[in-house]
TrEMBL record:
UniProt-listed PROSITE patterns: PPR
GO biological process: RNA modification
Name this polypeptide is given: DYW domain-containing protein
Each PPR repeat, start to end: 82-112, 184-218, 285-319, 386-420
Native organism: Miscanthus lutarioriparius
Keyword Zinc-finger: no
Native organism taxonomy: Eukaryota, Viridiplantae, Streptophyta, Embryophyta, Tracheophyta
Length: 693
DNA sequence: CTAGGGTTAG
């Protein structure tokens, strides 16, 4: 304890008599220890239980002084602790995140002669039960409250409702609520948050509307719950009404409410409105920043999310574990390895709690950046894992082409008695399809229903179609679709169409495209695949016709786009990019690259290019694909030994795939490319996908 | 001495 304050600066030692002035009773260790000493010296501490209580209360007010408060409570000289003294210390335990200590103190209190639990005690104990999800203890405390006649207390009742809500027993909470004669806003808030916590968002909105109808008073807390629920169900209308009310009543200073509104707007897709509220806040705490960042991440505006994260750091607000979840998932989407790695080291340096959610985000981030070893390391460093965590790693293994290891992980997961979900099986089946493990795939698909009672969804059927189709069993894949118990979706037909492209199957390809068009959600990629199928078997006229059809229907080709990160900044390249400051150098580098790999045997594959131009133009066009520009940029900017990592929005085309293999050899570089559904690790002239993608 | 609220992964 610090005692470096000169004696002259001390408050005058209290003589026996009136209680010491309240002014110095701030939670400042210097004043407190000095005052404590003075009270002992004057004998006042033992003489006046009030002084003791004040001192204890002051110490308990600050979490850093909690050990001091405890020793004050435990060690003499002091009067026997009264009921309020117990209550103060219990609340301090709860506040400091030690609900179990609060419970222990309650038990001790039951046997103490100097104190007897009152309504304050019971409310606090119930809150501890909420925090610990201790339903049985909570019920016991309720029985105690009934015996002691404390059930009429509004604080006891609302704490009890919260306890049941936290323990996922909403109906018990509702029974209590209904049993109360005159419910005020506090009780309404209790039941509303009970619904909110358990995901009954419609009920939250309904109850609020009911309050409005009968003209009941509501407050800020009510509105926070209502707005949060609006965000979850996408009820922008009610949410906007609340925003208007907040504006009108001048509640803009309420940070929690503003944060809830930001979250609501973001979840309803109104990022601009969310940002305007955020910018208008007088003070933004870590939760407000986190809400805005997660808004951008969830809206798939990951670059904005990262930009806001760096603004947050400039503003001097320390991120917490929740912030980092959103930041990491933005990094995962962008393939921003440097930024994410920095986040990981920050987490370690600041010892942020590696919760299941944060750990899972970390595993997912590394896996989505193609760093599967680091993903495994992160996985192993986690103290507690759940089904999501295992699933993230299994999926990561699958997309990185390590199907066998993914399946081994799945069996370890089962050994660890972690229940797989339907998503886990998507990962398992993806592992099989990316690694061409046909028999295993069929087996797991059957076992999913038989052994785990999980009904296959469209995604699973899609995986099987993909698995069979890519393995060359295109007819069987087609038959599989025809006998499926669900209506085949575009996704499923699209999987079939891509395998037709791999195996040059015109007939089934045509059928698949027909089905996709009839379902009315065709992409440019579907037409391009079909056109490529025709081109690959020499049906040039049909290929041209499909392209024309696409044009006539006004379907724009999705521009290819590649991302590459450099010194923590994510650069974006488009095919035929004309918007980069170092364009000339980049195109020069591309030319040099193409010349060098041509000497190593590269032959440009121009079969898939628009047909109305001459051969040279086709070659140039292919050489300006976004990933070639990005790789050239990487070669220019990165250290000679550094791995080039990029991620792109479409699938890698055949030409870029063979070119990249040769680049990895000629330039002696590892290149990792993430396309829209898997990874390619290029090294020494070969690719981890074994040309099977 | 008293409640209740906002941000989070596959």
């Amino acid at each position: 304890m610090a005692t470096a304050v000169p004696t002259a600066a001390l408050p005058t030692p209290a003589r026996a008599g009136p209680a010491p002035p309240r002014a110095p009773l701030r939670a400042d260790p210097r004043y407190l220890t000095q005052l404590h000493a003075a009270l002992i010296k004057s004998g006042e501490l033992t003489a006046s239980p009030k002084s003791f209580h004040s001192l204890l209360e002051a110490a308990a007010a600050s979490p850093t002084l909690l050990p001091y408060a405890v020793s004050l409570f435990r060690l003499g000289p002091r009067p026997p602790p009264s009921t309020p003294c117990y209550n103060v210390l219990m609340r301090a335990f709860l506040h400091a995140g030690h609900p179990e200590d609060a419970l222990h103190l309650f038990v001790e209190m039951l046997g103490a002669a100097s104190a007897c639990p009152d309504q304050h005690t019971v409310a606090c104990v119930l809150k501890s039960c909420s925090r610990m999800c201790a339903l049985d203890v909570g019920r016991g405390v309720q029985a105690y409250a009934i015996k002691r006649g404390l059930m009429a207390d509004r604080f006891v009742l609302s704490s009890l409702i919260h306890m049941y809500a936290s323990c996922r027993d909403v109906s018990a909470a509702r029974l209590l609520f209904d049993a109360v004669e005159e419910n005020g806003v506090v009780m309404w808030n209790a039941i509303i948050t009970a619904y909110l916590k358990n995901g009954y968002w419609m009920e939250v909105v309904e109850m609020f509307k009911g309050m409005l109808e009968v003209g009941l008073a509501f407050d800020e807390v009510t509105l926070v719950s209502v707005v949060t629920a609006c965000g979850r169900i996408g009820d922008a209308k009610l949410g906007t009404w609340v925003a208007g009310y907040v504006d009108e009543k001048g509640l803009v200073r309420s940070r929690n409410l503003m944060t809830a509104l930001i979250d609501m707007y973001a979840k309803c897709g109104e990022l601009g409105k969310a940002r305007r509220l955020f910018d208008g806040m007088q003070s933004r705490d870590v939760v407000a920043w986190s809400a805005m960042i997660s808004g951008y991440t969830q809206a798939d505006q990951c670059r904005e999310a990262l930009a806001l994260f760096s603004e947050m750091q400039l503003a001097g607000v320390e991120p917490n574990n929740v912030t980092m979840v959103s930041v990491l998932s933005a990094c995962a989407v962008l393939g921003a390895l440097e930024t994410g790695t920095w986040v990981h080291s920050y987490i370690r340096r600041k010892r942020l709690p590696l919760t299941i959610i944060l750990g899972t985000a970390l595993v997912d981030f590394y896996a989505k950046c193609g760093c599967i070893d680091e993903a495994v390391e992160a996985f192993e460093s986690m103290p507690v894992k759940n089904s999501w965590t295992w699933t993230a790693l299994i999926k990561g293994m699958a997309t990185n082409g390590r199907g066998r290891e993914a399946l081994e992980l799945f069996s370890s997961m089962r050994k660890a008695s972690v229940e797989p979900t339907y998503v886990t099986f998507i990962g398992v089946l993806m592992a099989c399809s990316h690694s061409c493990l046909v028999e295993e795939g069929r087996r797991h698909f059957d076992s999913m229903t038989q052994d785990y009672g999980i009904k296959p969804r469209a995604e699973h059927y899609g995986c099987i179609v993909d698995l069979l189709g890519r393995a060359g069993l295109v007819d069987e894949a087609y038959q599989f679709i025809r006998t499926m118990p669900i209506e085949p979706s575009t996704v499923i037909w699209r999987a079939l169409l891509s395998s037709c492209a791999v195996h040059k199957n015109v007939e089934i390809g045509e059928e698949a495209l027909k089905q996709i068009i009839s379902l009315n959600s065709h992409h440019s990629g579907d037409y391009i695949l079909m056109s490529n199928i025709y081109a690959s078997v020499g049906q040039w006229k049909d290929a041209a016709m499909i392209r024309k059809e696409m044009k006539d229907r006004g379907i724009e080709k999705t521009p290819g786009c590649s991302l590459i990160e450099l010194d923590g900044v994510v650069f974006e390249f488009f095919a035929e990019d004309s918007d980069h400051p170092q364009l000339r150098e980049i195109y020069q580098k591309v030319e040099e690259m193409i010349d060098r790999i041509k000497m190593a045997g590269y032959i440009p594959n121009t079969a898939d290019v628009r047909l109305e131009v001459d051969e040279h133009e086709k070659e140039v066009s292919v050489s300006h694909h976004s990933e070639k520009l990005a790789i050239a940029f990487g070669l220019m900017k990165l250290d000679p030994g550094a791995t080039i990592r990029l991620s792109k929005n479409l699938r890698v085309c055949t030409d870029c795939h063979s070119a990249t293999k040769l680049i990895s050899k000629v330039y002696n570089r590892e290149i990792v490319v993430r396309d829209w559904n898997r990874f390619h690790h290029f090294k020494d002239g070969t690719c981890s996908c074994n040309d099977y993608w």
